[in-house]
Specification:
Oligomer: single chain
Number of helices: 8
Number of strands: 2
Helix content: 55-70%
Amino acid sequence: AAMAGTCPNCSTDRVGRFCHTCGQVEGEADELTLRAAWRHVVEEIGALDFKTIRSLVALLRPGWLTREYLAGRRQSYLSPLRVYLVAAAIFFVAAPRVGLTFDALIAQGNSGQLTRMVEARIAERGLDRAHFADRFDLRLQTIYTLSLAVSVAAAAVLLALFYRRHRRPFGAHLVFSVHYVAFLYLAALLNSVLQKAAPSPLMALLLAH
């Protein structure tokens, strides 16, 4: 193939439209026009949406997304870190709307013990209920997020120990753990939705993990 010029990004001699070193595509004659800019925006948003949906759906098939990543089929999916961040973002946005809030937890407490504990803490700290509820919701989400983040490393270490005879690199276990924890974010939301319709001990057990 004939040389197609030098890549303006990394100065490598390019063969064809794409640079084999950095991957940058050759600029088109109309790339600075308004029409081209709009086309690039639509392409980027469309690619992100399809990748995001495809990746989140793939999480529902245990081990599938990890297997695809380890097999090198990665272009059609988000990276493990992006999957984790998207799942966490969905959790933060949707959690207040599916009952993972202070008021919802108080309403679910049939014995009244939780309500008495809350009232005692509010009186002890001299806070109004609305301010206490805001702080509680923030702390709940923070603790949940930190616990899942720590569990990524813990799960990867355990997998490395359990499957040490398979001699897989640690990164493979880490990728699976990231995908698993991303799934837990979505499972927590699903659990809350199902509990509103029909409380399920099985889903509660799943969430506890």
